[in-house]
Amino acid sequence: MLEVIKQAAAAAVGAGAPVTIMFGVVTKWDPLEVTVDQRFTLDADFLIVPESLTKYEIDLQHTHKYTDSSGSGSAARVTEPALNEKPIIVRKGLDKGDKLILLRMQGGQKYLILDRMVAT
User: Fold this and answer.
1) Is the same domain home to 118 and 69?
2) Which residues form the domain of 44?
3) Both 49 and 61 in a single domain?
4) What is the pLDDT of residues 40-66, one digit of tens each?
5) For residue 9, is it within any domain?
6) What is the number of domains present in the chain?
7) Contact at 8 Å (CB) between 115 and 70?
8) Whether the predicted pLDDT of 11 surpasses 70
9) CB 102 within 8 A of CB 34
């Protein structure tokens, strides 16, 4: 009896296709759209994007305030801007044309973007 239950459970999981690996291409970035296996297009509502594939920039430009007490009395001063004028890109995020590896979740309603492909 226990063996029959185990076989039925294994068959149910196998029939439900809990996870399927698929491939897609970003066709539009804002709003996000991905064409999957050249068959259908998914919008952002169906996609789970991990933090590692989101854009992240750091603006390192800065100034310092200081008090200049040299000469005739004290005066508040500000240094010239330091470092890059443009933010430094830590992660570039997804872009149109990126080829992706996706996991289709059970039921096919959500797709997790695993990563970008670097070679086809």
Assistant:
1) no
2) 17-54+92-120
3) no
4) 999 999 999 999 999 999 888 878 888
5) no
6) 2
7) no
8) no
9) yes
The enclosing domain of 41 has a CATH number of 2.40.50.140
* Residue 103 vs residues 37, 63, 106: alpha-carbon distances, Å: 12, 46, 9
- End-to-end CA distance of the chain, in Å? 48
Distance CA 80, CA 105 (A): 53
Q: Are 26 and 38 in contact (CB under 8 A)?
A: no
Predicted local confidence at residue 4, as pLDDT: 64
pTM > 0.70: no
Which two tokens mark 1? 């009896």
Alpha-carbon distance of 19 to 10, in angstroms, equals 14
CB crowding 54-77: b at 16 or more within 10 Å, else e = eeeeeeeeeeeeeeeeeeeeeeee
Distance of CA 25 to the CA centre of its chain: 14
78 lies in the same domain as 60 = yes
